[in-house]
Amino acid sequence: MNGTTGTNETRSTEQHGTTPADVVIVGAGPTGLLLAGDLAAAGIRVTVLEKRPAKISNLTRAFGVHARTLEVLDARGLADELIPTGRKLTELRLFRSLSLDLAGIPSRFPYLLSTPQYEVEKLLLRRATEHGVRFVHDAEVTGLRQDADGVTVDVRNKDGESSAYRAAYAVGADGVRSAVRKAVGQPFPGKSVISSIVLADVLLKSEPDLTVAVRGDEGAFGFMIPFGDGYWRVGGWNRERAEIPDDAPTSLDELRDIIRRAFGSDFGMHDERWISRFHSDERQVPQYRTGRIFLAGDAAHTHSPAGGQGMNTGLQDANNLGWKLAAVLNGRAPDSLLDSYQDERHPVGSAVLRSSGTIVRLAMAHNPAQLGVRWLASKVVNNAAPLQRKALGQITGIGYAYRAPRGSHALVGRRAQDGQLAGGSRLYEALRGGQFVFVAPKETPLPAELQSLAGEECIRVQWADERELMMLVRPDGYVRWARG
Ligand SMILES: Cc1cc2nc3c(=O)[nH]c(=O)nc-3n(C[C@H](O)[C@H](O)[C@H](O)COP(=O)(O)OP(=O)(O)OC[C@H]3O[C@@H](n4cnc5c(N)ncnc54)[C@H](O)[C@@H]3O)c2cc1C
Question: 483 — phi, psi (to 5°)?
């Protein structure tokens, strides 16, 4: 990693007029790292400003990488490297009664990969660095302003010295307390959903069966997820202690008590590597774009960790924004393409808030009426295949689709499913070029109507089998056009 500090470089930028970046990204969390790598891979000059020193924390927050995120990583050649770091979980069990079977989902990755967030960040950081992203650490963004030509980002380093960076566009991927969001004056409306969740990574003397389990009973709910490294992520909430503030101390005994209430056993948990108490809000900015400034990841939306979707949703934001910014900066698309980032990602953010909110509210159910609703909802989802598919599509991310023009083929707006290509490769390997991919039966010329959509660098491939389907797939893996 390039550990240069901000001050000297910035001063030289300002004093000597050297070329500023095309894009400044604030925040080197998973969202900022994926976006930075995508832009740099497309030849865009990227500077990432990060207030932390140049070291990845080994304290993990997110633990689960869902199928759609693995597909996105596959389209960058990273999924196969990530998978050995974790454990594949094929069933999600919620509130004793609801079971979601991941094994049948139509993806190359029919499971939840349980692996610490830092493993994902490690791969994304390496890729971004290999593509030449400039990282500036100990650089806290304190404000930013835009004009007709670009954005100026104000930074303070750890010695309290100020400097400024200039770029054509800026992206706030600076997490839930985003300074960029505040600087552009975006509100973050919403409310607190749950407080005093106790969370820890622990070892267990006896392991429960290998599923992601969320259970609620006796005024408490708990969840347990195995990491790949022997530790378990265990968390829970106790109604009787729900008003305790985040900064009140917690202990393994408090967590043991919660888990015993929820699961009937504490599984002999011991040797926590960290333990913490936190609360969770449900909030979303109304606008993901303000002129030349974009918000992505937790800076744009936050919700309960139920369903394990925070990091996954941020990575999908980056997947959507990266190719669009690159296309505009490379002169291949008009600036208006960038408005589709809001049109496509804001509704997904809202849907994630709703689904994670539903899970956490059902988990907190305690009076007979609420428990009855939970029982009924579980029964219905267990027994109705379309509802089970919908729930799985939302949790894994493979079910989200973007709005398609009226009269489009049914696949337009959906994520392309991987498929075998002539020559032995796969569609998601073809997407590693970062371009539109036109896939068709053998020897099919690119239809004239697609010439301007796909651009000159469109990659053309052929199915390995005899299927008639033709698709133009966007660089982010979503179908732009289809026939057959
Ligand atoms: C306790 C806990 C448990 C969680 N569990 C899960 C889970 O199980 N599954 C899941 O999917 N998600 C989970 N999450 C959420 C997940 O960790 C986040 O959604 C994810 O990290 C968001 O990534 P991001 O890149 O958008 O933001 P972040 O990871 O927050 O990264 C933002 C970066 O910006 C930097 N930054 C902030 N302000 C500035 C500034 N002013 N100047 C420069 N840099 C700045 C920060 O140092 C940070 O590196 C959990 C979160 C917490 C707190």
Answer: -150, 145
